[in-house]
Amino acid sequence: MSKSLVVLSGGQDSTTCLYWALKHFDEVRALSFRYGQRHVKEVEIARQLCEEAGVPWECMDISFISQLSPSCSLTNPSLDIEAEKREGDPYPTTFVPGRNLFFISVAAIYARNHGIYDVITGVGQADFSGYPDCRDGFIKSLNTTLNLAMDEQFRLHTPLMWLDKQQTWALADELGVLDTIRYRTLTCYNGIVGDGCGHCPSCKLRREGLEKYLEQTPSNSPSMGRKTP
Amino acid sequence: MSKSLVVLSGGQDSTTCLYWALKHFDEVRALSFRYGQRHVKEVEIARQLCEEAGVPWECMDISFISQLSPSCSLTNPSLDIEAEKREGDPYPTTFVPGRNLFFISVAAIYARNHGIYDVITGVGQADFSGYPDCRDGFIKSLNTTLNLAMDEQFRLHTPLMWLDKQQTWALADELGVLDTIRYRTLTCYNGIVGDGCGHCPSCKLRREGLEKYLEQTPSNSPSMGRKTP
């Protein structure tokens, strides 16, 4: 029996990974995080999607990380989330330093407690939005660090690492879950499920990818006839 | 101005590192953690030592890690802390998986918020007690991972990496703080300051190192005449 754990935010990318995992592993678990994020509704979305898919789900509170990033607009509601960058700062205002480091490290230890060594995350560097901890080199280095920290052989899987948003939509369609991903997940920084607010940086990226995918989809693709709800 | 951050538990090793840092850097800060440990008194000891040394000090709560290690005797008071190992388990019962990974990662992000990129930790592999996350390979890998996670150039310093306990006592003596380390720090798993309970695994290691050091110390060493309080 192959077993895996998915780091699940309830957004487009990690939810696509959930269905990818269900195709590639016999047993799948999912772990979500509360970390003081604005759009905490995503946690409830993750729970519901797992319940429907029969996937055991848990949520851990690691909100100490919001203390570590007082100037981050993702965890500080007094800041403007749509100001993509601040003058003199190389990172988006939504960058939570070390977020993926903590998500994936906690997930690996949680997985190990369940006898699981395959950990799946939706990070990718094609559309990495300026977050250094979405890149392949970081993930490979973290994989080695986790193995050394616990004398184990973890395998971190990143099915979306080299896919842009258009290709991520194509993957969802191949997995037969285009509509689920489109209408049920939450990627919008303003907390609007599905197609979202349409104008925050996250919605823009998601929408542009979807439009490109739908335009180029041949009529015999799995998504045929599913372009509207 | 060179600046550094010390990860400070209030025990022998990290406190020796605090004084090492004060010798090697112009500015020193210290960070301690609450993580559900039995001997939380060490946090107060760390605070006092920093106050006396004029070192800015903070404590962060990362007690979520105790949820990750329900079978650990260091964070679960219902377990026997002196049972060094459980049958079939390669680790000491006091192993908190990922503890140093979290301590050092949180410290690096905290340091970055203060414009500090030199982070000092007291881990060492000479007397590593079976904890994989005290070894040099782990620290070097984590250093690379942290740099990649944040696109920064952190330097993790481990002054005790290759020193056994006897040599760590020698270093404290060279730094002129043998008595402070001996009588003020808390290393004992049973929470007794200074020479401790004398029989837990941590006290044994500490005492044996001190005895060897004091036996072999020539009479003109800095510790001369300080063998008793």
Can you give a write-up of this model?
Two copies of one chain form a homodimer. The first copy, chain A, has 229 residues and is an alpha/beta fold. A five-stranded parallel sheet of chain A has the order 3-2-1-4-5, with helices on both faces. In chain A, 41% of the residues lie in helices and 10% in strands. Chain A has one domain (3-216): Rossmann fold (3-Layer(aba) Sandwich). In chain A, helix 6 packs across helix 8 (201-216). Chain A has helices at residues 12-24, 41-53, 64-67, 99-113, 136-150, 165-174, 178-184, 201-216; strands at 3-7, 27-34, 57-61, 118-120, 155-157.
Discrete helix count of chain A: 8
Measured by residues with Cβ under 8 Å of the partner chain's Cβ, the largest interface is: A-B, 35 and 35 residues
The fraction of residues assigned to DSSP E strands of chain A is: 5-15%
Task: Tell me the span between the first and last alpha carbons of chain A.
Answer: 37 Å
Helix content of chain A: 40-55%
Which overall shape of chain A is indicated by the principal axes computed on the Cα atoms? Answer: globular
CATH class term of chain A: Alpha Beta
The secondary-structure element order of chain A is EHEHEHHEHEHHH
Question: Oligomer, anyone?
Answer: homodimer
CATH-assigned fold name of chain A? Rossmann fold
Looking across the biggest beta sheet of chain A, what order are the strands in?
3-2-1-4-5
Total number of distinct structural domains of chain A: 1
Mind telling me the C-alpha Rg of chain A?
17 Å
